[in-house]
Amino acid sequence: MWPKATEFGFPDEEAAFALQMGHGIGLAIWEKPMISRLVSLDHPHEIKPGMVFALETFWPTKDGTSAARIEEEIVVTPTGHEVITRFPAEQLLVAGAPFVTVGGTLPTVRETEAPPNPDVVKMVAAAAKAEGEKVGAGR
């Protein structure tokens, strides 16, 4: 559960809504369900294993001059959750290039990703081909 808005300098939950929330991940910027102190306490959603969420947090400095906004992606498991974000947010001391962590400066280039899933590549190619055939037929 996120801290109350008043605990980090905001007058109420509505003022802090987009700064401490969770949401589903899909095609839109914020997929349902929305999870926040503003709506979830009165309108809860059932959370089940296999669901994937982005949890967004905002932590201002004590003097209010700056803040960090960190988003972590999690997958719900039968026993709790697993963080699937690869960025080491728990080690972050300074956000912004360069990123400074307890272990030193992080590279600003994303780490190497695994090669794309061949089935996904085939699906994308087939969809592109079908779309091209539709465009060509309409000329």
Largest β-sheet summary: 5 strands, antiparallel
Mean pLDDT: 78
Helix amount, in percent? 10-25%
Distance between the termini: 55 Å
Tally of discrete structural domains? 1
- As a whole number of angstroms, the C-alpha radius of gyration is 20 Å
Q: What gross morphology would you assign?
A: extended
Helix vs. strand class: alpha+beta
| Beta-strand residue percentage | 25-35%
Q: Provide the low-confidence segments as ranges.
A: none
Annotation field: number of helices:
1
N-to-C order of helices and strands = EEEEEEEEH
Strand order of the largest sheet: 2-1-3-4-5
Total strands: 8
Multimeric organization: single chain
Structural topology:
Elements: E1 21-24, E2 31-35, E3 52-60, E4 67-77, E5 80-83, E6 92-94, E7 99-101, E8 104-106, H1 118-137
Antiparallel strand pairs: 1-2, 1-3, 3-4, 4-5, 6-7, 7-8
Describe this structure in a few short sentences:
By secondary structure, the chain is α+β, with helices and mostly antiparallel strands. The protein has one helix spanning about 120-135; strands at about 20-25, 30-35, 50-60, 65-75, 80-85, 90-95, 100, 105.
